[in-house]
Structure to design on (222 residues):
């Protein structure tokens, strides 16, 4: 299983469906969904990310906005995706409530979040320790379900495997997500290199890292 397969399965048939990509970044997921015929709208707080998404997916609609204050009317989408982004939101509970508002009752929201474990997490930790914010995202999801605001249609954990040619390739990957990480990399280059070597598995193709992901398919209550 991978995130894209789970998302496509959730919204099948996806062609023509209005999907909101919350925390769209540079539009990688949006491009994949648009290629399947979805009508994609994306939001991200980063201006550079929105420019990249617009360039990558000309047919999509992209707005610079916060997940806690979506600039869309109620029930305007057939579903939403929050892919590896909820833990970056200062108030994840507010983001879930906003997602519910813009999709409306009985329409799915796919939330995929990295857990604070795995070799990818271990390699990232000296650059940015996301232990607390990842736990906060999971707590927000659990609280939203417990409150009755959402039904959980599916809760599944799976692994994302990535291979990097070398340390610079890994660092390029993690700074593409957040350019502010570059300062931490420069401050402790030797420690970060050691953590990467210790966490990664050497393969003929390069350095392998694994990140466990937990996916929830949430359906807002009526």
């Amino acid at each position: 299983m991978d995130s894209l397969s789970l998302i496509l399965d959730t919204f099948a048939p996806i062609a023509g469906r209005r999907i909101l990509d919350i925390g769209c970044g540079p539009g990688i997921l949006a491009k994949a969904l648009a290629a399947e015929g979805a009508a994609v709208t994306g939001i991200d707080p980063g201006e550079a990310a929105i420019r990249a998404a617009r360039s990558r997916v000309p047919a999509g609609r992209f707005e610079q906005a916060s997940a806690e204050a979506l600039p869309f009317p109620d029930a305007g989408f057939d579903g939403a995706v929050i892919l590896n982004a909820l833990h970056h939101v200062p108030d994840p509970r507010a983001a879930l409530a906003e997602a519910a508002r813009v999709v409306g009752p009985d329409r799915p929201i796919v939330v995929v979040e990295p857990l604070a474990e795995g070799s990818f997490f271990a390699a990232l930790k000296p650059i940015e320790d996301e232990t607390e914010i990842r736990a906060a995202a999971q707590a927000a999801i659990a609280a939203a379900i417990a409150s009755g605001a959402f039904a959980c249609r599916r809760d599944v954990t799976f692994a994302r495997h990535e291979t990097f040619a070398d340390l610079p390739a890994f660092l390029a990957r993690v700074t593409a997500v957040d350019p502010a990480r570059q300062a931490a990399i420069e401050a402790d280059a030797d420690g970060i290199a050691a953590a990467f070597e210790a966490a990664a598995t050497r393969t003929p193709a390069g350095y392998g890292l694994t990140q466990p992901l937990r996916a929830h398919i949430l359906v807002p209550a009526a």
